[in-house]
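Running co-folding for flavin-adenine dinucleotide.
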Amino acid sequence: MARLVVMGGGVSGHTAATFAKKWLGNDHEVVVVTPNSLWNWIPSNIWVGVGEMTKEDVTFPLAPVYAKAGIDYRQAKAVSIHPNGGTNSDKPYITIQYTGQGKEGQTEEVAYDYLVNATGPKLNFDATPGLGDGNGQLGSNTVSVCTADHAVHANEELQKIFDKAKTQKQKILVGTGHGMCTCQGAAFEYIFNIEHEARKAGVRDNLDIQWISNESFLGDFGIGGLHMKRGGYAASSRLFAESLYSERGIPWIIGAHVNKVEAGKAHYELLDGSMNEIEFDFAMLIPPFAGVGLKAYDKDGSDMTDQIFAPNGFMKVDANYAAGAYENWKASDWPRTYQNPIYKNMFACGIAFAPPHLISKPMSSPNGTPINPTPPRTGMPSGIIGKTVAHSICDLIKEGPNAHLHEASMAEMGAACVASAGKGLLDGTAAALTVYPVVPDFEKYPGLGRDLDYTFGEIGLAGHWIKHILHHMFIYKAKLNPGWTLIPE
Amino acid sequence: MKEIEKYVKPYDANFTTMIPTGFVKYMRTCVIWQIIRFIMINIKMLIVVRKSHG
Ligand SMILES: Cc1cc2nc3c(=O)[nH]c(=O)nc-3n(C[C@H](O)[C@H](O)[C@H](O)COP(=O)(O)OP(=O)(O)OC[C@H]3O[C@@H](n4cnc5c(N)ncnc54)[C@H](O)[C@@H]3O)c2cc1C
C-alpha cells in the first residue's frame, strides 16, 4: 500500500487529493495535511467583502467531506520535508503541527511515498511596512479580501464608510500593496463591486474611488494583457480596462510600488522613479505572495531548503529557471509535469510551484525598484494542474516508476475567468474572459502570443450569471456531491 | 452618456479611451440579449476548457 500526502487543502490540493483517492480506491492511502477546517471558494470572497454573501455562503467544513471520501485528514500545517528520511529510517517524511482536531500545537511525523505541495501562497503583508502587523498578519491600516474572515472584516469597514458617505466625502483606494504583487483580478473585482454597491446605497457621489496597481498598463493582469477580436480589430485588454474604469468614474495609478502604508495614507514609488503619497479613508491592497515557508532537511538534519525551494519559497519543479532576460523567454520554460527535478516522488501544484519567470515584461524604476506583476495562477490552471499531478502519481503507484507522466503546461493551457463588476440578478455585470494559452507563446503565435480564436472577453449580465452559477457548481463539486467529477476544473 | 459628462475631463487619462454609448450599456443588462450571450459565452468557454484538459 502506497501513501500519498497532499500538503494544502485549497483549490489545487483538494482537487489533487479527491481525484487521487477516487482513482486509487482503498488499495492506497491519501492523506491531506491542511491547517484550515473550512474549505473556501476564494473567488466569492469579493461578494463577502461588500456584504452580498456571508462567510457561510463561501465555506464548508472539510472533515465530513474527507470522511466520506476515505481521505485521512490532518488539520495541521506542514512544517518541514525530509525527502531522504531521518536518522532511524530512509523513508521520506514531513513534519506537521496540528491546528485543530483537539491536538492544537502537537507535532507529528507523516511518512510518504509520494508528496504533493499545494500549500498556495503566504499572504506576505509584512513585505510592505504598515500593510502587515509585523507578525505576518494583516495590519490595521487597510483591509483584505484574500480570506473569508478578511472579507467579513472588509465589509464591516466598508459599511462604516458608506454610512459616513451619506453626509461627507470619503476616499477609497483599491489595488496592489507592493510592486511585486499578483492577483490584480481580485482587486479589479473588488473595486467595481464597491462602486456598484455604492450606487445601490445612493452614496456614489460622495465617494472618490481610486485604483492603484503595479501593472505597467491597465489590463495587464500579470499575464502581459491579452488581445481580443472586437469590431474587426484585435484589441488590447488595455482598451477595455481603461474604458471600464472611465465609464465607472475610477481614475487609475499604474506602475506603482506601494512602499509604506500609514493610517489613512499610502506612499508609493512610480516606474518613473518619483515618490508620491495618497490619502484614503478605506483601502484594500492585495499583499505580495510568497511560498508558505516550508523547510527541507537532509537525513543528517542539515538544511537543504534551497535545493528544493526557490528563494521566494515556491517549490522548484520541471521549469527552466535559467532562461535569463525577457528576450530569451520561451513558452517551453514553463513546467509540464510539476515534478521536483531532484526528488521524483515530489510534485507541486497551484500557486505553490515556482514559476520560471514572470509572464509580464519585467520593469523597474530608475532607483532599481522592480515594479511588475508576478505570474497569477488562477483557479482553473490550479485545478487542472492538481488533477494532472494526481493522475501522474496514480500511474506511478499503479504502473511503477517508468509510468508516463501527465502534462499541463500553462503555455499550452487556456483559462476561463469571470471577473465580477457588480452583483445583481438583473443589474449585475461581469467580464467573462478566456485566454489561450495563459502564458503567451510568441513562437507559435507571433505578434500577440495568443490564439485569437480562443481568446475573447465581454462584459455583461450573462457574465454575472455565469459567475454565480460557477460559485454553486464549484462548491457542489468540492463537496464531492453526486456527479462531481463531471464538473470541469 | 451622463458618465462622460460626469467623469471625463479633457486631457485627463480617461480622455483618450473608448466610453460605451447608452445603447452598448443597455445591451449589457438587456435580459433577452444576455440570454443569447449566456449561451454563446458558455459554448466559447467550454471549447477552451476542453482544449485545456488535454
Ligand atoms: C480575493 C481573491 C479572488 C480570486 N478570484 C478568482 C477568480 O475569480 N477566478 C480564479 O480563477 N481565481 C481567483 N482567485 C485565485 C484563486 O483563488 C487561486 O488561483 C487558487 O486559490 C489557488 O489555489 P491553490 O490551491 O494553489 O492555493 P489555495 O487555494 O490558497 O490553497 C492553499 C491551501 O494550503 C493551505 N496551507 C497553507 N500553508 C500550509 C502549510 N504549511 N501546510 C499545509 N497546508 C497549508 C492553506 O490553508 C490552503 O488551504 C482569487 C484569489 C483571491 C485572493
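Result summary
The two ends of chain B are 45 Å apart (CA to CA).
Residues 22 and 50 of chain B are 36 Å apart (CA to CA).
Job closed.
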